Request: fold
Amino acid sequence: MQSYITEVKESSLLYGNTYILWIDSPAGISMFPGQFLMVYIGDTYAPLLGRPLSIHRLRNNGNDKEFALLFEDTGQGTHWLSQRNPGEKIRFVGPLGNGYEIEPNTQRTLLVGGGIGCAPLIWLADNLSTQQKDVTLLLGGRTKNQIFPPELLPPSVEIIATTEDGSFGQKGLLTDPFKDLLSWSDQVFSCGPRPMFEALYGILLETGSSKSIQVLMEEHMACGFGICYSCAVFPRKGGVKLICSDGPMFDIREIYA
Reply:
C-alpha cells in the first residue's frame, strides 16, 4: 500500500447528484476491478480520515493513464471532492482490498448494481467486454436520477434498468430481472446496499441455486487497512470479517449463510 499525491484531470456532474472525477494515474500502480482507495479531503472536513471510494474506470489520455472515481455528493467530504478542478491535487492511499475474481471458463456474466454500487461494476463491465465475455448489467435505483447513463457503456453490454418509481426502465426492483437471469449466468458480481444483498441471497435460497455471488461490501472506514475495525461485519455463522482487508469482495454465502 502506498500514498500518492496526484492531479485532477477532469471533473463533471455526470447524472443526478453523481460526479465523476478523472485523476492522473501514478506510474507503476496496478489496480483491479473491485479494489478501492482511501481518498483524503484537503485541509478541512476531518482531513486525517480518508473516504473509501471504489475505482470506477480506467482510460488512456494520449500517453497518460487516468482513473476515475464515481460518487454522490452526499456529505462534506464528497462535496469537497465534487468541487475539485483540473490541475488541483488529491492525496489517496491504495489500491486497497481484494477485488472481483473472474474464473477462466466464464462466458456469461451477470452484474448487479444498486444505486452508486454501479461504480466498480462499470470498470468490470469494460474489462469483461474486452475479453469477449457476454455481459448483462442490471442497474437499479429509486428514480431515473440514480441510474448510470447506459450510453456510456460498451455497446456489447446488455443493460437492464429498474426504478422503483418507474421513471426509467422497468418499474420495480433489481431482484425481478435478477431472478430471471440467475440460471443463465456463469458468474454473478454485485455491489450495492446490504438489503439488496440479503434479497439476492433470499433468491438463491428460493430457487435452490448453488451459484456463487461475489459482492462488494460498503462501509465507513477510518483507516482502510485493518487497524481501526470500523468496517467489521459479522457473518451469520459467527466470527468477524473486515471489509477493508478481508474484502471488500466476499462470496455472499460467506456473510449470509
In short: Helices lie at 76-82, 118-130, 175-181, 194-207, 252-256. Residues 2-96 form a domain with the Elongation Factor Tu (Ef-tu); domain 3 fold (CATH 2.40.30.10). The CA atoms of residues 205 and 257 lie 10 Å apart. The chain has a mean pLDDT of 92.
